[in-house]
Amino acid sequence: xxxxxxxxxxxxxxxxxxxxxxxxxxxxxxxxxxxxxxxxxxxxxxxxxxxxxxxxxxxxxxxxxxxxxxxxxxxxxxxxxxxxxxxxxxxxxxxxxxxxxxxxxxxxxxxxxxxxxxxxxxxxxxxxxxxxxxxxxxxxxxxxxxxxxxxxxxxxxxxxxxxxxxxxxxxxxxxxxxxxxxxxxxxxxxxxxxxxxxxxxxxxxxxxxxxxxxxxxxxxxxxxxxxxxxxxxxxxxxxxxxxxxxxxxxxxxxxxxxxxxxxxxxxxxxxxxxxxxxxxxxxxxxxxxxxxxxxxxxxxxxxxxxxxxxxxxxxxxxxxxxxxxxxxxxxxxxxxxxxxxxxxxxxxxxxxxxxxxxxxxxxxxxxxxxx
Length: 371
Fold this sequence. Notes:
The chain is α/β, with parallel strands linked by helices. The protein is built from 13 helices and 13 strands. The chain is 40% helix and 16% strand. Helix 2 (78-93) crosses helix 12 (327-343). It is elongated and about 65 Å long.
């Protein structure tokens, strides 16, 4: 399938930020000290292109009778829709029966999701894959699932380091699959820095005025993307001024409202709009258009996820850039981790993936690969 060979489609020009695939690490990565992406995310110029992700060798077995429970924090999230669709498809390709794969919508309510987890435990599922509504609930979720003797794979929303350390200390069958959000935030900031201060500093006052539209304040990805996008600017020696910082809860409509209000209040003073995901960036773009501003001419806009619509906007110049959050690699790695638990092969407690910086130079290639 074309969408399964993203890495092979990315050109040599992308190699500095080329996806290296998913791999384990002993602990969450330290914050990047420079504006460069963390060193481990870069591939040498002569490196071979990563091969298509393969299923574990043990996956040749028959898993048709194995029950898989999947909890998604909210079905209406654009990125998690891509993720869960690919996850189900890949599980089926590994030999799981579609009838034994149950995916639940947490409706962005931890109480609802907790009830779903309890139901999965009562149904004696063989493995659970959970995208928690609140990362702070991971300890409670882990205790429930481990207590029931069910292997657990967390996805997309990373529990904190102390929780991950508990898994290692107790040698539990629990792992996290996802990318380090600090990297995505750093890449957002780097895309702005790469434009040059003279370009971004529209009013010539020697500093960059920005607004920040955050996701869920409970979510570690939102916190890191917020922090490290701006850190990339200050690490480059730029002076910055935050004009507004609002919580959009990953929602396009909410972000449109927040950015419209900020533009009404601060007007042409806003030079950069940072959004923690592409859904909110799309809402921000609507507000920017309504206000008569032009991305790339008098304001800059970046997001994260590389949704198809956002990629088209980058190609057309109506978004400055985005960061590819590889739902294909992550969903396959989550399914592979589930297989490893079922076969007794086990997993590291952290299975990490890299983001890819997306600008006009490579947006078409990324779009072609995910269609």
